[in-house]
Amino acid sequence: MKRKTIALIILNVAAAMVTGLCAGILYKNYQKKSGAAGNVPERELLYRAVAAIADPADAKIGVALITSGGDTVVYDNQKAIRSLADTVPEASSGDVFYPMLSVFKFHQALAVCGWLRQGGIPLDTEVDVTPDMLQENTWSPLRDEHPQGGRFPYGTLLTYSLVQSDNNACDILFSLTGGPAMTDRYIRSLGVDGFDIECTEAMMHENLADCYRNRTTPLSAVLLLEKFLEERGRDGYSEFIWQTMTSCGTGRNRIPGRISADGVTIAHKTGTGDIGPDGRIIGVNDIGVILLPDGTHISIAVFVSDAACSMPECENIISAISAAVFGIVAHKPDM
User: Dihedral sign, CA of 178, 182, 186, 187?
Assistant: First the structure.
């Protein structure tokens, strides 16, 4: 059994490497055909690079990105979306929805901090966590490290949720602050639409179909990232979320995977789903802000849903897209 497991891992890694190599070749071919060094608009180069990587995949893939220069690109291989806009369109413009999975913990963190801010409650305010709040059979470093519960600051619970994607910490925060409905209302109050947040982690664990009820369009996700970036220095709550997301411990092979340039900061939040009844992965996602040394940035969201490819292959798609986008915006085409 161990030998079989090792063999499968080797095959998956090899497949991911091949996917990355093919993506790089396709991207460079697009550069040559389009005359990347010539007069092709940057947003068109960005779209072509994304399409070259995503088109061959046996998965539903949605990508949206916004750059400091105002370029907005939306790609979706489920229908003929070819949005090359100079200005940001409305998030509710009919884009396809994708299951967020743990990506919604970013939305929740914004809502929790908004709730704390409004109530004048500091992040270091402690709350009781009892053993019955720490559900078994779910991803929870909090439970593993503190099986008997204890008293924890809101900031600690948010850190478990954002950095380690802890499902129990997420649901405890829901129970303290008004549940998914409050998070949904708060994000809409920011002027962002094109998403739905209806379920807790426990609900999604009990019924895989509920994973599709916490959903977003890729464009909605990047518009929220843009709102967040605008408010980054507003107060200690906003700065806390930013610093926490730069320490995200999950999905290191996704957006940050191939971006290792000096002075670049990446704040991101991942989402990962189970295998559905059809044998496909429900979702492998990552959204985040890539902050360049000169102060410019890229807000990007990549959703890979209902994927027949392996987890390493899905992560490699996200990594390849992120690196290609970064290379164009940062003028590093050989990235």
Answer: positive
Phi, psi angles (nearest 5°) of residue 97: -90, 150
- Rounded to whole angstroms, the Cα distance separating 220 from 62 reads 11
Instruction: Pick the closest to residue 98 from 325, 251, 281 (CA basis).
Output: 281
Please state whether 35 falls in left (phi above 0), alpha (psi between -120 and 50) or beta: left
Residue type, 3: R
Enzyme catalytic residues: 102
How far is 98 from 95, CA to CA, in rounded Å? 10
What is the Cα Rg of the chain in Å?
20
Q: Which residues have a Cβ under 8 Å from the Cβ of 296 and sit 6 or more positions away? A: 67, 68, 69, 329
8 A C-beta contact, residue 335 and residue 258: yes
Q: At what angle do helices 167-177 and 154-163 cross, to 10 degrees?
A: 140
With a CB cutoff of 8 Å and minimum separation 6, the contacts of 335 are 258, 259, 323, 324, 326, 327
CA atoms within 13 A on the CB side of 15: 16
**Is 248 buried (19+), middle (13-18) or exposed (0-12) by CB count in 10 A?**
buried
State which amino acid sits at residue 335.
M
CATH number of 2-329: 3.40.710.10
* Cα–Cα distance, 71 to 58 (Å, whole number): 28
Axis-axis angle for helices 236-245, 218-230 (nearest 10): 130
Lowest-confidence pick of 42-46, 125-129, 214-218 = 42-46
Query: Which H or E element spans position 198?
Result: none
Share the mean pLDDT of the chain: 86
Distance CA 165, CA 151 (A): 19
1-31 pLDDT per residue, tens: 434 433 443 444 444 444 444 444 444 444 4
308 SS3 class: coil
